[in-house]
Each structure stands twice: as structure tokens, then as C-alpha cells.
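Journal club prep, notes for RB
We'll compare a predicted complex against what the paper describes. Inputs for the S-adenosylmethionine case:
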Amino acid sequence: MTVYTHFAKTVGDYDTVADKVVFKNDELHQLLIEAMPTKKEKKLQILDLGSGTGHGMKLALEKYPNSAVTGIDFSPKMIEKARQNLSKYTERIKLLKKDFNFYDFSDQKYHVILSAIAIHNSTDIQKEKLYKKIYDSLPKGGYFINGDFFKTDSKLIDKRLLELYCNYLKSNLKGKELEC
Ligand SMILES: C[S@@+](CC[C@H](N)C(=O)[O-])C[C@H]1O[C@@H](n2cnc3c(N)ncnc32)[C@H](O)[C@@H]1O
């Protein structure tokens, strides 16, 4: 199954499983938002790559009441759910159903580009191209904040972290939900 098929077709309501499949999901999002510029009155253009159901977008919209937030996600189900979850903010949001690896967003400037648990799905070559687009669309002093799975320099540590993650999934999921 491709990443696209998984998110476009099989993930019914991500909001109900997010905390089960993403370790400390809420804390991760809080950290991403805390890493953003501190002045709340700033009029920022913010981009969320792989915005899902709008969790990160909502926190950004709340933190910066004068700002606009664009979400890019290739899953129609996620886009639809994000639109529902963010219905209070219709005038300050844009939701683009695009694949961020192929869609060129770099002709637009964003003060902050954030992403949570999305870019790891891309190949190394795709990531390299994506990071170039991100760099090109940030103004000097702009922020790229990414909360995701990363490999370390140690195979041993990676193996242990994977085991811990598998145990986390096993304690939260049942039967077919579990692919580990
Ligand atoms: C695990 S979910 C995380 C959603 C959200 N960032 C959150 O943390 O709640 C990953 C999201 O990234 C999206 N995604 C993954 N690869 C993508 C790509 N190449 N282009 C656009 N969206 C992508 C999926 O459709 C899915 O909604």
C-alpha cells in the first residue's frame, strides 16, 4: 500500500487514532508551536506541510490571531476533515490538496513553515528537493519547524527506538490496525 493510498483511502478519522499512533502527539504539537516566534500580534504567513486534520494549523491560528495559515495535504479525507475542524477560521486558512513533493510552493514566501509526522514518508531524494523548496520560500530569518521521525547515527539506538515505538503501537492498537 502506498503512503497516498493509506492516507487517502484507509484512514477514516485520523483524530481518533492520532494519539494512539503518535507518541506524545499533543506535546509534539505544543513544542512546534512554542518554537515559533513569540510576538503574538505578528501578521505571519504560515505553511503546514502534511497538515492532516488541521491540528497544527489550529494551534498556529490560535497563537497568532492576525495570521493566515495554509495547509498542504494530498489526502482528500484529511483536507475535508481539516475544513470541518477549522470552520471557525475560514477567512484565515487555505487548504491545498497537493503532494508537497511535486507541488511548487516556493514562489510564495512564508514566515514559518511547519510540519508534523509527514516528511518521513518521502524518499531521501524527495526530501532533498523539498528542503530546497522550503529554503526558497522562507524569507531571511524565517522558521522551518519539523517534528518527525529521524534516524540517529547509531544503528543500535535506531533499533531500540523502533522496538519502543512498536511496543507503544502494540499497547494501543488491536488486530488489523497493527502493522509492525
Ligand atoms: C501522520 S499524518 C500527520 C497529520 C498532521 N500533521 C498531524 O500531526 O496531526 C501525515 C499527513 O501527511 C500527509 N502527507 C504525507 N505525505 C504527503 C505528501 N507527499 N504530500 C502531501 N501530504 C502528505 C498525509 O496525507 C497525512 O495527512
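Talking point for the session: The chain has a mean pLDDT of 91.
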